[in-house]
Design goal:
The complex is a heteropentamer, with 2 copies of chain A (250 residues), 2 copies of chain B (284 residues) and 1 copy of chain C (254 residues).
Chain A: E1 6-15, E2 18-28, E3 33-38, H1 44-51, E4 59-64, E5 67-68, H2 76-82, E6 83-86, H3 98-108, H4 114-127, H5 143-155, E7 161-165, H6 173-188, E8 192-196, H7 200-206, E9 209-214, E10 217-222, H8 224-229, H9 234-247
Parallel strand pairs in A: 3-8, 3-9, 6-7, 7-8
Antiparallel strand pairs in A: 1-2, 1-4, 4-5, 9-10
Chain B: H1 2-8, H2 17-50, H3 54-61, H4 64-103, H5 111-126, H6 129-139, H7 152-178, H8 181-189, H9 194-225, H10 236-247, H11 251-283
Helix pairs in contact in B: 4-5, 4-7, 4-9, 4-10, 4-11, 5-7, 6-7, 7-9, 8-9, 9-11, 10-11
Chain C: E1 14-18, H1 38-50, E2 57-61, H2 64-67, E3 77-78, H3 86-89, E4 92-94, E5 99-101, E6 103-108, H4 120-124, E7 128-131, H5 136-144, E8 151-153, H6 156-164, E9 170-174, H7 175-185, E10 189-194, E11 204-206, E12 209-211, H8 216-229, H9 232-240
Parallel strand pairs in C: 1-2, 1-3, 7-8, 7-9
Antiparallel strand pairs in C: 4-12, 5-11, 6-9, 6-10
Helix pairs in contact in C: 1-8, 1-9
The chains are: A alpha/beta (250), B mainly alpha (284), C alpha/beta (254).
The structure holds adenosine-5'-triphosphate (2 copies) and magnesium ion (2 copies).
Chain lengths: 250, 284, 254, 284, 250
């Protein structure tokens, strides 16, 4: 267990009377890609936000490389450098060009020289086919390009693990593919990834393990073949049926 | 227009049914608008002078001789309004930003600052500007300050700065709060500190977003500079008042109104334009 | 000059303040430098007695309220019909009175109030206007108690304008101002009467205003006393102020 | 709190690490806030009276005797402000709505109305309120109107109504334009006429949306009622001015400021609350 | 041709220099369900808005029951009564309850008595499982419920044809099914339907004919088997491939 890159132990989280995470325990190993699936409001985003210390958990432990980062009062900023996060609504800073978006955190947090980080950023942009958009403002980009830029921005901090929260669900169907390609590429390079997604096909193809959340409970963890082929829980079955009925009809 | 466009694309086409109709409709509505506007204006021009008392109105309010005699002096008095305005505006901007940030403080140790900001904003927003001007502009110099530190110009401007910094602090606060939580999350998740987030991510967007409101408040400020005349400075309103007494005629006030119209309408239009642009962006 | 040496704002200069604008008949044509008008003449006469010739007098303007607030001043003394009141004397110093007058009620023939009997009960029924700073408002309240609420204005011109616009039935001024207004500013104005000298706050004593504790006050007081005893003051009065001799006195017993 | 809640759900649990930490943090920050605030206030209370001139300030601005003597009269003068306010507010609301609708007219035949509305709004927004009050409140009665039609109360209120209806017409217009095109599309696609759409779909939403801004403008109106004192009415500002002249003391102005504070802060808070509620709804 | 319920002839529409509909011709017969598919910005929404006379067309004719309703100056309101339209973003009036939303147009346009229309509205709500939500404000409803209410609102005007513009694309995947069910029901009842959609599976299952739009051009009209099985155009193939790759991976 202690060899896990990221390890969630009995996480609990409530908003007022609403329990959003109910005793969630899961490990993510180095280089592994774990998908979180589940209905709307099942707590996927909240769980990811908690891992990145954007929301404090009520109870339980979050271990990063065996260190409990959820100790109350723990300084979140160094932790966040190691954990990159990308959101559903692309969240680029609209008043900065793509390159400025990418350079901001390395310059202000890591205090890197502008020149060094520019080189590194351009290399990243090039790798993800965005080099020609470096000096463009986000509102001139398509959703897919914005989302890829947001991923590059997170990568520029050289995180050890990436959290991706439904990074394709605000995209037009045609643009989904290019973002999923980026995720495949990240996985191929050995990045540890935890992602919440509604793209069942993609989850099935790419993930090492899939977690099914329902109303804040982690009902089932299984390899994708098992999860999509022969889910154990009735609720998992029911959820998959409903979603797949429309997504995979053809 | 449409035809030119077609030609420009190298495909001269006969006007379509819609184009023909729209051209006709446009002509017709232009005609109707022109005719009805002309009729309305003609009615005004013909009927108003026939109204009983129109001559009295004209003599009292639109007296050409008085206007010609007073306007140059009014205009030069207006430069004082402008000087006071340009002296106060930057101070207001900086003070308002400081107060807005104090208002937003979350660290308990800094709580007195927050408390101060809340009281500051509340008190100065609730009191009529003219009262603040009387209190500060008359009151403080009365405390035994020596010239030049008892100048009504200084303390009048201070009164305006205090009053408007409270208003504009609220504008900034609204701007800061209008920046979506997700922008903050994104900044924090990159490891930016609270202060860096504010400085590089939130404030630049917030200020940009409130620019139209700021312009409107600047227009209000320019108009309220006129209130300083009540504590001494002979700016355009007071100058008009002096002429009004002298000529027993309201035309100098009309002259002052014209000066304000010319000075503020472009700014108001600019604010409207910025606002419309932002709205268009938001709904796109 | 020996009395005031080192006590003036600017060495060797006497800085005198008046209103903005300054009104007839106290200052003619809003130009005190000319020495025309009662207060302008008094100011130069005082200056003369203190040893300052015309070239060593400079004028500044202040608002009425600005002058009687506490604190340092940008003038040596200020004259614009300040009534000497004990409350005011707590924050500024007054010279001995340079003029004493009564308050008078001005009406216009345009609104049919010109025949109001010159008695307390008669004026009680009028709607009054007055200058806000000119102690008239308090006088009305304490001595007349008019039946309708009084309207107050910032200066003489606005008060007269309100009377001419029929917004008020009558206005109240000090007698010289009333005489001037009815003689020059209005063609249908009439003084209904002046208040007797034995009611509250009447007569009005006009004094020059000094910053509290200004040592110059004693020099000016001496100068004013001299002017009164050698007849200068009477001459100036006769020259600039119309005689109020024919103005009826309001009967406060009816 | 947390414990009670746990108990209420029938699962009494030991406080978690987070709960313990937060309780401690809360206690600590409360303590820090209390101590630092108390220290700040203590400093104020001790230091300020030691400042040179404090006695003069106290005598001029915070003179208890003067306050006691004048406050009841100030309060009763304030009722005049309230009366004028409540007379003007409904007229402003109705006139502003009419002007806003005129401003929005698209039919060419009604173009003069639109033109009128544009000029009306531009002119009245650009001129300082005090100038409008002088022009209308002093000028019109000077034209030979007979009592009671020359009353400064009437014409002063008219001046306020004109000025504020222009501001508030713009508020309504912003509200109307903020209703998303898709709401209009939906209404039109149901076959509603332009007028029905405006009346049943757009206006109810638009007005609701601008309520906070309206409240803020009402606060501004109440404060500007004080400006009517310049044309005669003895409301609280003028009453304070009379006392100020009489006592040569600024405490009556402080009294007037207190009255405005008490009268407007609840309204301002209410507007803030409404605004925050709307923002919360929009970002949800 | 003239027996078509709705007939579009050579429709052209530009926004400034941008041609959004390029010479589009298509017929929709009574009781038929026609789907519009195509990438983002291909002109689907614009075409539907033009049919409902919300945007004027530049050239061409729109015939409803053989009557040209696109004649410039034609009164749009009677036409709109016959054509119901539902939008992507549900567009219920937020200041009215569901029932009030439904009653507004019949009362103000058809001048029906409040009682009559209440009965009719309740019957409709019942049919679509929303009766218990009649007195609820839209913001208390889920997206799926809102969209169903919007459909009921359009139906209450008893339109002869319904235009649906991506009515499911703003919905969470789990809620898509319930709205698609409503459409199936409408089709079963013989309603003429023209719908823009990204749900390829659904389009394939339910439509009589599918139109593929690309950059404002109507590239291909075909029955669903043909369109999804053996599309003629290279661009159609490419589009379907890209979309189906993510939607139907599993
Ligand atoms: N800041 C908050 N305050 C109160 N409740 C919240 C907050 N954030 C989330 N919630 C609630 O917590 C629950 C879980 O939300 P969460 O966003 O984690 O779900 P999700 O699985 O990401 O759903 P989706 O697929 O819609 O993104 C929801 O009921 C939501 O309303
Ligand atoms: N009112 C308008 N003014 C200018 N351009 C417009 C307007 N409405 C739409 N467009 C443009 O017309 C093109 C077609 O838009 P339309 O909304 O019809 O596409 P769509 O096929 O519905 O796309 P989506 O799948 O994103 O809804 C787009 O390029 C769009 O930017
Ligand atoms: Mg989520
Ligand atoms: Mg569309």
């Amino acid at each position: 267990m202690s060899d896990a890159k990221l390890s969630l132990r009995n996480i609990r989280k409530s908003f007022g009377p609403l329990e959003v995470c109910k005793n969630i325990t899961v490990d993510v190993h180095k280089g592994e890609l774990v998908c979180l699936i589940g209905g709307s409001g099942s707590g996927k985003s909240t769980l990811l936000r908690c891992i990145n210390l954007l929301d404090p958990i009520d109870d339980g432990e979050i271990l990063l490389d065996g260190v409990d980062i959820s100790v109350p009062g723990f300084d979140p900023d160094p932790v966040r450098r190691k954990i990159g996060m990308v959101f559903q609504s692309f969240n680029l800073f609209p008043h900065m060009t793509v390159l400025e978006n990418i350079k901001l955190a390395p310059m202000k947090v890591k205090r890197m020289a502008s020149r060094d980080i520019t080189e590194q950023a351009e290399a990243l942009l090039d790798r993800f086919g965005l080099l020609d958009k470096a000096h463009v403002y986000p509102d001139r980009l398509s959703g897919g390009q914005q989302q890829r830029a947001a991923i590059v921005r997170a990568l520029a901090m050289e995180p050890e693990i990436m959290l991706l929260d439904e990074v394709t669900s605000a995209l037009d169907p045609e643009l989904v593919g290019e973002v999923l390609d980026v995720i495949r590429q990240l996985k191929a390079q050995g990045m540890t990834l935890l992602l919440a997604t509604h793209e069942m096909g993609f989850a099935r193809e790419v993930s090492d393990r899939v977690c099914f959340l329902s109303d804040g409970e982690l009902l089932e963890i299984a390899p994708p073949e098992k999860m999509f082929g022969a889910p154990e829980h009735a609720r998992t079955q029911q959820f998959l049926e409903r979603v797949l009925r429309t997504q995979n009809l053809s | 227009m449409d035809n030119t466009q077609n030609t420009a694309r190298g495909k001269p086409r006969a006007p379509t049914r819609r184009q023909a109709y729209e051209q006709k409709a446009r002509r017709k509505s232009l005609l109707i608008a022109a005719v009805s506007s002309a009729a309305a204006i003609a009615l005004l021009v013909v009927l108003v002078p026939m109204a009983p008392g129109w001559e009295a109105v004209q003599r009292s309010f639109f007296n050409w001789n008085v206007l010609v005699k007073t306007f140059p002096k009014l205009l030069s008095a207006f430069t004082l309004d402008l000087i006071l305005f340009f002296a106060a505006a930057p101070a207001i901007f900086i003070l308002a930003l400081v107060i807005a940030l104090m208002r937003n403080v979350t660290r308990p140790a800094l709580y007195p600052l927050k408390l101060f900001a809340i009281v500051y904003i509340d008190v100065l927003r609730s009191i009529p500007v003219i009262l603040t001007i009387y209190l500060i502009g008359f009151g403080i110099p009365g405390l035994g300050l020596l010239p030049p530190w008892n100048s009504p110009y200084i303390w009048g401007s201070v009164a305006l700065v205090l009053a408007y910094s409270a208003y504009i602090a609220e504008v900034f606060r609204t701007g800061i709060e209008s920046i979506h939580e997700s922008q903050r999350s994104a900044a924090r998740s990159l490891g930016l500190s609270e202060a860096s987030m504010m400085r590089y991510v939130v404030l630049p967007q917030a200020i940009r977003r409130v620019v139209p409101t700021l312009v409107n408040f600047l227009v209000a400020l320019l108009k309220d500079v006129a209130l300083l005349s009540f504590i001494g400075p002979v700016e355009v309103l007071r100058q008009a008042g002096v002429y009004k007494s002298l000529f027993a005629n309201f035309t100098p006030y009309v002259g002052a109104a014209i000066i304000f119209l010319v000075a503020t309408i472009p700014a108001i239009r600019f604010a409207d334009y910025l606002m419309a642009k932002q709205n268009a962006q938001r709904t796109r | 000059n020996e009395c005031s040496t080192g006590k003036t704002l600017a060495d060797g200069m006497l800085t005198i303040a008046t209103g903005n604008p300054a009104y007839y008949p106290w200052v003619i044509d809003d130009a005190p430098e000319s020495g025309q008008g009662f207060e302008a003449a008094v100011a130069y006469a005082v200056a003369d007695k203190m040893g300052y010739d015309k070239a060593h007098v400079s004028w500044v303007r202040t608002s009425f309220d600005g002058a009687i607030q506490p604190g340092a001043k940008n003038f040596d003394f200020n004259l614009q019909q300040f009534s000497i009141l004990p409350e005011r004397a707590e924050v500024v110093d007054f010279s001995v009175p340079y003029y004493t007058t009564t308050k008078a009620v001005v009406v216009t023939t345009a609104n049919g109030k010109q025949d109001t009997p010159a008695s307390l009960s008669g004026v009680k029924s009028l709607k009054f206007g007055a200058g806000a700073g000119l102690s008239a408002a308090t006088f009305l309240e304490s001595a007349v108690k008019p039946e309708q609420s009084t309207l107050l204005y910032d200066d003489v011109a606005n008060t007269v304008a309100a009377l001419q616009a029929n917004q008020v039935d009558a206005v109240i001024f000090d007698l010289p101002t009333a005489l001037f207004v009815t003689a020059v500013q209005m063609d249908n104005g009439k003084i209904l009467g002046q208040f007797p000298t034995d009611v509250n706050d009447s007569p009005d004593h006009f004094g020059m205003v000094f910053a509290k504790g200004n040592p110059l006050k004693s020099c000016v007081d001496t100068a004013l006393a001299e002017m009164k005893s050698d007849g200068t003051m009477v001459a100036i009065e006769d020259k600039w102020l119309a005689s109020g001799a024919g103005v009826p006195v309001i009967d406060m017993s009816k």
